[in-house]
Amino acid sequence: MSDKDRVSIVVPTRNRRDWLRDALRSVREQTWQAIEIVVVDEASTDPTLAMLDAEFPEARVVRNRKPRGPSGARNAGVDAASGDWILFLDDDDLLHPRHIEDLVTASRAAPPGAVVSGQWRRFCVVDGELRLGPVVCAPPDRAALDTLAEILEPMGEGTMWTSSVLWPRDLLRNVRWDERLNANGDVDFFGRTILAGAQIVGRPVGMAYYRVHQAERVSSATALRRPLSSAQYRLKWSQMLLSRPDHERFGEPMRNGFMALLIALSGLPEARGIVPSLRDAFALWGGENYFVSNPPTNPVKRVLASAALKVAGPTGLHWLLKQALQPSQLDRAQVSIFQAPQSEQDLADAATIRGFL
Fold it and tell me: So what's the pLDDT on residue 219?
C-alpha cells in the first residue's frame, strides 16, 4: 500500500449521538483499510463524546468549544487530517462498505487533475418503512463550467453531493470552506474548487446514502438563517462571476436563484436590508419581469401563484406560499420521489442501510 492511499473522513457533529454512531459504523465497515476518522464535535451537550470514547477510540476527535458552523467544522477537520484524500460525511448519513475503495480506485485511473464523484442516493424511513430515492451520479466527461452552471442552479437536481466526492488533499490546501455561510457552503465550496482548476468527473462507483428527515441537518442552518445565508452566497457569486467574459452562460441559474430569494425574503423584517441588493443583482443578470421561480405542480396552484406575484409582487407570493405550505404538505412533497425497494440494487442498498440503523 503506497503512501498516497490514506483517506481521512471528516465528520462534523453536534448533539446527535445515535445518528453519529450509525454513520461511524458505516465508516468502520469500509473495505478500504487506510482510513482515518476525524470527528469535529461542535460543542455537543449530549453524550456524544462519551460514546466516541467508548465505542470509537480510533477516531481523532476535534472539539470546538463554541460551534463554528458546518463550514468551520469541516475546515477544522481538514486541518487535523493526515490523509492524502479527504471525504466529507455528515453525521446523519451513511456509506456503502465499498464506497471509499471504489472512489480511490477510480481516482487513480482518472485523468490528471480530475476529481472523482461517485454514486449516491437519498433514503428515508416512513412509518417504519425504508424508502429510496433514485441513484444519482455526475456525468463522466462534462465541461467544468457546465458543472458550475449546474451547481449555481437552485431549482435543479444536483448530480454531486458532499459525500460522493473524494478530494485530493493538495486541492484543499488552497480552497477552504467559507465559514461566513451557514447554508450553501457546499455548493460554494464545489464552485470554488472548479474555479481553482478541478475537473469533477462522474464515475458509477461506490454509494453514499443521504438520510432525509425532519430535523435540521448538521450541514444546514435554521429556517431564517438559511435564506439569509443563501442570499449572501448568491451575492458573493454574482460579484465573482460578473467580471468574467463568459458570465452570460450563468445568467439563467443566477436569475432563478435571485428570484427564489426575493420570494423567500420579501416582506421579512429581518431581510429588509438585503432585499434591495437582491433586486439590483437580479436586474444586473438580465432579470426584467418577476416570475415564479419554482412553480407548483398543481395547475390551480400555479395560476394562484402567478396571480399573487402579478398583483402583490414577491411579498404577496411569499405570503401565499407561507399560508399554503403547511409542514405536513412539505413532508409529503419531500418523500414523493421515494419508493419501496424494487430492483436488485434497491434491495441490496436497503439491506446495507438497515444494517447500520
Answer: 45
